[in-house]
Amino acid sequence: MSTTTTAAPITVLTNIQDPEDTKNVYYQSGGYRLSRPVLEGANAKRTFDSIPTVDVSNIFSPDLEVRKAIAAEVAKVCEEVGFFYAANPPVSKDKMEAAMEIIKTFFRLPQEELLKLHVDNSQGVKGYLPFAFRDGRRCRASYSLGRDYTNPEQHFVQKASEGTVPLNQWPDEVLPEFRTIIYEYYQEVFVFARKMLQIFALALGLDETDLDDTFRFPLNDITMQYYPVQDPNEQSSIVPHADYGGFTLLYQDNVGGLEVLNANGAWVPAPPREHSYVVNTGSYMEVLSNGRFPATVHRAFGNPRVDRFSLPFFYNPDPNVMVAPHPKLVTEGQAFQPQDVSRRQIKGLMTNRPHHPFFAKLRALGLTDEELTFDLVTKPLAEIEAQYGKK
């Protein structure tokens, strides 16, 4: 799809802290503004004050007992912290560094070139998006790409059916090497994530493949982040939040700026570590684990001296599944409400991008909540109109 896009960035409120309330820390989770009390002295809980490390160099060991040993460490840190460093991952250090360097080059392209790749030009909301604080100053910019089986580079997972609408956008004319470098990285981190999912299953005491069907064709996404130089007293560039997905593999540059909220309402830095990912669980993993692996609140800052860049890889459930606690983890008589990934995903996109041209057209068709499913983003608009009629 093609639209005319203005240069105006999305204005965001990244500081939701109540300035008069020093006894609580405020954050977002599941679309709600929540708070956590600041606990000190005798009231303080036993909690983490640093981010633990798990060595995953043997994650592909043929010995199940070796993989279970990694899983036991993962279980401990997920229950106690929700964040950990995955050290020595099975992703080429050279490819990680090449990906980081090319995204730095990408974000330094002229603004008019970046805006040609604006998310409003993708039915799946993939592409470039600038953000600003409410006073108009830039706080960050992002470029996202994700599950798009029209791309040959993703055919190792699945091939799109004929007529599927492409979602990802590429700066082929001005940065032709970008796609090759990013996909060489993407393919390795995807394989790592798929194996990491099995480690999470073992960590929960499940069989290694028990979560595979939930993530058969995952809604994976890379959202490259650029944080311009920022005043040292500035609010965070991303609102304190808990991730909604399965889990995240974050590759940071050497600048740093990530902080994690502990049980006492204190922010704990997660500085960069060489050839490591910062791993955290999201709300879908919290549900699948029946609460054992909670989604942990975090925030991110720019740096007062240099630009900052990060490269998170989100690994989320297949949109064609209902997410609920795994049956082996449910207690007798326990009630729960399964979550429809497909409908939650498209509703989230439509809420976050209310003026997106494609979603405006869907609203004009008068589709019901039952008719709004994620698969619509991969269908030509003419096909959707023929299916539902112009209401």
From TrEMBL:
InterPro entries for this protein: DIOX_N, IPNS-like_FE2OG_OXY, IPNS-like_sf, Iron_ascorbate_oxido_reductase, Oxoglu/Fe-dep_dioxygenase_dom
Iron: present as a keyword of the record? yes
The species this protein belongs to is Sporothrix eucalyptigena
Q: State the family it belongs to.
A: Belongs to the iron/ascorbate-dependent oxidoreductase family.
**Which protein, by its recorded name, is this?**
Fe2OG dioxygenase domain-containing protein
Provide the leader sequence positions: none
Domain Fe2OG dioxygenase: from-to ranges: 218-317
The taxonomy runs: Eukaryota, Fungi, Dikarya, Ascomycota, Pezizomycotina
| The entry's keywords | Iron, Metal-binding, Oxidoreductase
Instruction: Note whether Nucleotidyltransferase occurs among the keywords.
Output: no
